[in-house]
Amino acid sequence: MSRHPTNCEPSGFGVLSRSDLMSRIRSRGNKSTECKLMTLLRSRGITGWRRHPKLPGRPDFVWPRHRVAVFVDGCFWHGHQCGRNLTPKKNSELWEKKFAATRHRDIKNGRILRGRGWMVLRIWECGLRRAPEACVRRIYAGIEKQKARRGRRYSIRG
After folding, report:
1. Residue 89 CA to chain centroid, in angstroms?
2. In a domain, 81, yes or no
């Protein structure tokens, strides 16, 4: 018998296999990181954003009026090489395939959005932790750049 249950073997959670059990878990992203950014945006008076719109890649924050999309990416799930040594040691080939597929999907969705006229910004979990103000300034600068076409200015508090 193998160490890992197949789809037919029970997982210890009733009659559900591990795969069936995990497929039922629905996540809305890295909530603590997103909440931190939301708090920063509010404290700086940056308004006009919406969360999780139905756009390719489901950006975490968008400014629909200015066509700015912000993704808040977790270092583990998106395979960020930030030096935190987050690569799993067990079953590393499987994990590397998952990370590569995620990176590929991120690139594809970014291209689609840019092709539709959106500015795409990626904020990394580690960057938000280390330099939150720099992340807010990047977002602000992106909004300003998109607004420059219309001749409007945007103010920031703090």
Report:
1. 24
2. yes
* Residue (of 127, 123, 125, 120) closest to 143 by Cα position: 120
Q: By residue range, what is the domain housing residue 94?
A: 28-150
In a domain, 155, yes or no: no
Q: What is the pLDDT of residues 38-92, one digit of tens each?
A: 999 999 999 999 998 899 999 999 999 999 999 998 877 777 777 766 677 788 8
Match 């583990």 to its residue by tokens.
76
Residue 49: CATH number of its domain: 3.40.960.10
The bridge status of strand 61-63 relative to strand 119-124 is unpaired
Inside any domain, residue 101: yes
Amino acid at 82: C
Residue 68 · residue 119 · CB < 8 Å: yes
Give the chain's count of helices (H) and strands (E).
5, 4
Question: What is the C-alpha separation between 87 and 98, in angstroms, rounded?
Answer: 11
Residue 21, domain member (yes or no): no
Domain count within the chain: 1
Q: Which helix (H) or strand (E) holds 96?
A: helix 92-115
Q: Confidence band (pLDDT; 50, 70, 90) for 22?
A: low
The tokens of 34 are what?
A: 């997103």
**How far apart are the C-alpha atoms of 153 and 121, rounded to whole Å?**
20
